[in-house]
Amino acid sequence: xxxxxTVVLYDSGRMLFATxxxxxxxxxxxxxxxxxxxxxxxxxxxxxxxxxxxxxxLKLYSTFTPFVHLPSLRADASxxxxxxxxx
Length: 87
Hints:
Layout: E1 7-9, H1 16-27, E2 33-35, H2 39-45, H3 57-60, H4 77-86
Parallel strand pairs: 1-2
């Protein structure tokens, strides 16, 4: 994976881990991160091809260089408290 490659995320649950990874990659500057609609379960239920034969591409092409690209995606405790006080 590198900063300029499209990354498609999925998990085998309710997308809890995939969405967290989406947030982290987006926060740290990855330009094109997507979530697979319906996750792996939907992909497989539609009869789409799957294979465990190929190695994970993240292990082969891991050249992502993180940097804080969108600091507005993160709030600290004082910002959360202030927002709650205004609500």
